[in-house]
Amino acid sequence: MHSNHLLLEEPIRMASILEPSKSSFFPAMTKIVGTLGPKSRSVEVISGCLKAGMSVARFDFSWGNPEYHQGTLENLKTAVKTTKKLCAVMLDTVGPELQVVNKSGNPISLQADGFVILTPDQEQEASSKVLPINFEGLSKAVKHGDTIFVGQYLFTGSETTSVWLEVSEVKGNDVVCVIKNSATLAGSLFTLHASQIRIELPTLSDKDKEVISTWGVQNKIDFLSLSYTRHAEDVRNAREYLSKLGDLYQTQIFAKIENIEGLTHFDEILQEADGIILSRGNLGIDLPPEKVFLFQKAALYKCNMAGKPAVVTRVVDSMTDNLRPTRAEATDVANAVLDGSDAILLGAETLRGLYPIETISTVGKICAEAEKVFNQDLYFKKTVKYVGEPMTHLESIASSAVRAAIKVKSSVIICFTSSGRAARLIAKYRPTMPVLSVVIPRLKTNQLKWSFSGAFEARQSLIVRGLFPMLADPRHPAESTSATNESILKVALDHGKASGVIKSHDRVVICQKVGDASVVKIIELED
Ligand SMILES: Nc1ncnc2c1ncn2[C@@H]1O[C@H](COP(=O)(O)OP(=O)(O)O)[C@@H](O)[C@H]1O
Ligand SMILES: C=C(OP(=O)(O)O)C(=O)O
Ligand SMILES: [K+]
Ligand SMILES: [Mg+2]
Hints:
Blueprint: E1 31-35, H1 43-52, E2 54-60, H2 66-83, E3 88-92, E4 98-101, E5 108-110, E6 115-119, E7 130-132, H3 138-141, E8 147-152, E9 162-171, E10 174-179, E11 183-185, E12 189-194, H4 206-218, E13 223-226, H5 232-243, E14 252-257, H6 260-264, H7 266-272, E15 275-278, H8 280-286, H9 292-306, E16 310-313, H10 327-339, E17 343-346, H11 348-351, H12 356-373, H13 376-387, H14 393-407, E18 412-417, H15 421-428, E19 435-439, E20 443-445, E21 450-452, H16 455-460, E22 467-471, H17 482-498, E23 507-514, E24 517-524
Parallel strand pairs: 1-2, 1-17, 2-3, 3-13, 6-7, 13-14, 14-15, 15-16, 16-17, 18-19, 18-23, 19-22
Antiparallel strand pairs: 4-12, 5-11, 6-10, 8-9, 8-12, 9-10, 20-21, 23-24
Helix pairs in contact: 1-2, 1-12, 5-7, 7-9, 10-12, 14-15
């Protein structure tokens, strides 16, 4: 991954672009989140997705019932066991999402320049004249001239099954709209996005709370993807809610920025959240198109400097029905990596697309190519400058480990960690080689029972660029002696060798505590 590192800023020999990339054990340092659904729920397809590089599975509760998602999750567990590839679980909330329910499922044909009424009366059947919605307050929120977008769940923006509407007038609780483009709405559920409109609904709905406290608790979800996060308060409320649900106090919250309200409160949200999802599906229609890239670059920079993982969505929409991405999409994936994203989230492509596995492997290959030309040196300097001095001891150790690893051309960095903090800080400096984070379980109690920490911490690193976790045997307690440290290190090195990332005579940088001191060690392997 770090060999023959090219820099875009230097003249590249054009022919070198054509040199095939060496295959490596890790498809890419950038992680892939796949949304699982109808086209990606069998053990066979999920196994294919894991082998192709998916390391986080997203379960989107905007759609489907808990039993359906449970069936998928059971298959995921089987696939994880058989492929021996780790995968984290992300629960995605419905939040204040506006939806049109088309009970009959019959296609609804809308003609440009005609009118259609949006009504909160859900008793009415959806038709080309009336679309019933799940929200009473739309008529109070919108005014003449506002734009509304309605499309199939997870619309890609490139299909003829979604429609733009312009508000013509408000009649009581109904909103009369002019149809801007002819379209046929297909399916039984449509998402409705009112551009730049405040929707007075809670970010965590009652339905979300119920799902989290049942399905979420039962499955010990690693991540909560908080749809339509608009304020830091939304994250605080979700955290408060999770803190009372057994193991879920350890669940990380990823705030989804999907509209202008979230964008304007970005800095405060980033402080509260464990990570950010740049939800370009919704945000891409809330923002004028010419502003989307600016948000992406600015938000990724802020996440990188804060050392918090950032996930970019909606990159290869056209792969929902096609085996190849468009040129623009392929370039977009690479740019997301160059801009600093940790992970790419696939939505419709894996959920209802025809090529879930191929999409993951194509995106992974593009990411890996972009990583090779990522200007780590420049990024490193920028980050050190941003953090300033004095640095905390741990951050200084982490950044030094990355520098040492690059200088000695180390094949991997091995980081011992219990909380995951040290490994995340190393990843923050974007090393060009993989980081094997060896998570050492810690014995803990909640006054009712004793258990080992570590499982959440290990899985949560599956969304961070460059981190590859390994959970140490709980028989090696965190309060370790140097003898146990040595034996764990041997296990980590053997694991690295078996997977092909470490070879004989390689140099390896190790970050661990010896006694009370954090140390960075460089070792050179023998045969
Ligand atoms: N069990 C362990 N054995 C040896 N070193 C460790 C262990 N856990 C953490 N370290 C090292 O201790 C330092 C603090 O790491 P951090 O991840 O913040 O630890 P903690 O998990 O205790 O919060 C780092 O240098 C890390 O590599
Ligand atoms: C990922 C997104 O949201 P959803 O949950 O609707 O897929 C998005 O808007 O990009
Ligand atoms: K959702
Ligand atoms: Mg969305």
